[in-house]
Design a protein that fits this description.
The protein has about 575 residues and is an alpha+beta fold. β5 (about 80) and β6 form a beta hairpin. The protein is elongated, with a radius of gyration of 26 Å. The chain is about 15% helix and about 20% strand. A three-stranded antiparallel β-sheet has the order 1-2-3, with no helix packed on it. A three-stranded antiparallel β-sheet has the order 9-10-11. A three-stranded antiparallel β-sheet has the order 17-18-19.
């Protein structure tokens, strides 16, 4: 008798392991929202359906997936429950009542009722910044075994899957942020940040209360008129009515200035520019180091756009720092930048953004004035009003090159968590700068900023997650040669005390026309960039910068949402609220 019971128990255990099983989603008791949450409610006047809503942080979300019937929507198909396939690919069905409908990206933009909007990628990331993990947002039941959540915020995320499957194991929700022509970002219980996917797939929709930012839905060969002109060229342009040689001078908000120069650690020379109290490279870094790549492995792309690097390579940190926190925002890191230069922090990019917007008396516009006048696809060129000349060099992730001609993405030193670092982005289809983050193993561009940074001993692998910096922090004062007095503040901003010209600290020979790099015409201090550090963590509304794949992307809905898909692109940013935290 005992042996018989043991045998029966074995058969039951074997059967349980045969199929992935989850609590029956058609049982309302298995998806009930928490009783201790103070929900609100609203009615979609288009069809009379009522939805729960919940406030999390400063955002008010729908607490269930949208179920508005649109021609571009459908119910979940091929759902498997306890090994039985339940075909629900019909216009109306029981699973839509539980999970809501699935939408292609165009339909997703129509799914939210008046007074609500499809969240941007940045707005999703604001939510993910608040929680400790997706477990906090997932429902307590309705998931495959061991995948249930705690639903402590009342978000009640259900595993609705997508048009290719995954019901019971994952949830996928569209964001409004496009990524080039054929992709858009989505939030998924698989990732701790939004990632791109083909717009032809069908995902769930959650809505966010309030009106969307005008920039929230945003995100080749370069012509000879771009900034990459040899010093021997005599390209003629005009600035404030004056003609000038654009190979040696640049126009900064109507004022003619001379390029400075700096050499990288391999001896390559780069142009430099002054913007406010910062001195930037006027082109992306093209310093050849291990683990860096040229887009599509073409040296000509490195010449035009610079090289692409993963985060630890940029920071000159051990490779294990791609999976653990190693940096310190209070420090400046030289990384692979030239001596006396450093990798910008998220705050320093934000300072640049604020300065441009202040000078141009506009908001969400900095990208327009920093993008090059040519080289961007789909009429995405900028005005290059300050000599920054941002070009769309694309990026590399999961063995795929994407978005050349469509986006510029630059690493910052600032980490979000163990596996993600903050990046800044400009897109072809908007005028803003995106404040976003991406996985550290992605390969992005680098712009270096003047000011001495900590030199990290990258050969040391004994780095704790709390401190990845070596004790050898050679912080010598920056030598900016000119008659003006220049100090490097602890935040690496340059405080110019007079209107005289500033020469790059590099020992490299300056362009033939002049060795002086002009500074602001009036005494400037770091106060112009003294924005609150909390703002730098925010996806501001200046951020709907997007990306797109440079090659034709597959629209097949059978491909799982994954950053390894040929439809994928880098993390981008549709930041919708300038006061929100990233």
């Amino acid at each position: 008798m005992v042996l018989r019971l043991v045998f029966i128990a074995f058969l039951l255990l074997l059967g349980a392991c045969g199929d992935r099983e989850f609590d029956n989603p058609t049982d309302p008791g298995n998806i009930s929202p928490p009783n201790n949450i103070d929900y609100g409610a609203f009615t979609d006047t288009r069809d009379g359906k009522t939805y729960r809503k919940i406030k999390i942080g400063n955002q008010t979300w729908t607490a269930e997936n949208m179920n508005y019937e649109d021609p571009g929507s459908r119910c979940i198909d091929n759902v498997k429950y306890k090994g039985v396939v339940k075909d629900t690919l019909v216009s109306k069905g029981g699973y839509c009542e539980i999970y809501g409908r699935l939408y292609d990206h165009d339909a997703a933009k129509r799914a939210c009722p008046e007074g609500w909007h499809l969240p941007s990628g940045a707005e999703w990331d604001m939510l993910l910044d608040i929680i400790s993990s997706w477990k906090d947002l997932k429902s307590k039941k309705g998931w495959e075994k061991l995948l249930q959540g705690t639903d402590i915020y009342g978000f009640t995320a259900l595993p609705g899957g997508y048009s290719g499957g995954d019901v019971g194991s994952n949830g996928y929700w569209w964001s409004a942020t496009k990524s080039g022509v054929s992709n858009a970002y989505y939030a998924s219980t698989e990732y701790n940040s939004t990632v791109p996917f083909s717009i032809n797939n069908f995902l769930s929709v959650r809505c966010l209360q309030g009106m969307a930012s005008p920039s929230s839905s945003s995100g080749s060969a370069v012509s000879s008129s771009s900034f990459a002109v040899s010093s021997s060229s005599s390209a003629i342009a005009t600035c404030g009515g004056k003609t000038y040689n654009s190979s040696t001078q640049y126009c900064s908000n109507g004022t003619l200035k001379d390029y400075g120069s700096v050499k990288d650690k391999g001896g390559k020379t780069y142009k430099t520019i002054v913007i406010g109290d910062q001195i930037w490279m006027a082109e992306n870094l093209n310093y050849d180091v291990p683990n860096s790549k040229c887009y599509n492995n073409l040296a000509s792309n490195c010449t035009k756009y610079g090289r692409l690097y993963d985060w630890t390579t940029v920071m000159a940190l051990p490779s294990e720092c791609n999976s653990m926190e190693c940096g310190d925002d209070s420090e400046s890191y030289e990384g692979i930048c030239p001596v006396d230069w450093h990798i910008p922090s998220a705050d320093e990019f934000l300072d640049l953004t604020y300065y441009i917007e202040e000078q141009k008396s506009c908001s969400d516009c900095a990208g327009k004035y920093l993008k090059a006048k040519s080289g961007w696809e789909n009429a995405g060129n900028g005005e290059d009003a300050f000599g920054f000349a941002a070009l769309p060099g694309g990026f590399y992730l999961e063995d795929t090159y994407v978005d050349i001609g469509y986006t510029s993405d630059w690493w910052t030193i600032s980490e979000r968590d163990d596996e993600n670092a903050r990046l800044r982005e400009m897109g072809y289809d908007n005028d803003s700068i995106g404040f976003y983050y991406g996985q550290k193993n992605w390969l992005l561009s680098v712009r270096c900023l003047k000011g001495t940074g900590t030199i990290v001993n990258s050969s040391s692998s004994a780095m704790s997650s709390s401190s990845a910096k070596s004790s050898s922090s050679a912080k010598s004062s920056s030598s900016v040669s000119s008659s003006s007095s220049v100090a490097v503040s602890s935040s690496s901003s340059l405080m110019v005390s007079s209107s005289s010209s500033v020469q790059s600290s590099s020992s490299a020979a300056a362009p033939s026309s002049s060795s002086a790099q002009s500074s602001s015409s009036t005494a400037t201090t770091s106060s112009s960039s003294a924005q609150s550090s909390s703002s730098s963590d925010a996806p501001s509304s200046s951020s709907s910068d997007t990306t797109s794949s440079s090659s034709a992307q597959s629209s097949s809905s059978s491909d799982a949402p994954s950053s390894s898909s040929s439809d994928t692109t880098s993390s981008s940013s549709a930041d919708s609220s300038s006061s929100s935290s990233e």
